[in-house]
Amino acid sequence: QVQLVESGGGLVQAGGSLRLSCAASVSVFTLSIMGWYRQAPGKQRELVATITSGGPVDYADSVKGRFTVSRDNAKNTVYLQMNSLKPEDTAVYYCQATTKWRAYDYWGQGTQVTVSS
Question: What pLDDT, on the 0 to 100 scale, is given for residue 72?
Fold first, then answer.
């Protein structure tokens, strides 16, 4: 069982920045990939960014150049630095991880990000 705990969400004005954190209850080296997803009201959950031990893998086109995903192996934590935030970035952001063993998927409880115009 892997627990993922997100933090760092909140209310910010357009153009501002936030950094989300996702702390895993296991070593990140037991996870093949970790990622950030988001879900806005009335919309499907969408990928924001993913990262492996080799570094960032993918970003949604809508966040490229503004968001940066990184990880701290010593803290078993993945971060999402969000700059130049826009109202359309408003959503619940979820951390996701896939285990190397049997590729089990786990999700965090989500953290709300609200960007005001």
Answer: 94
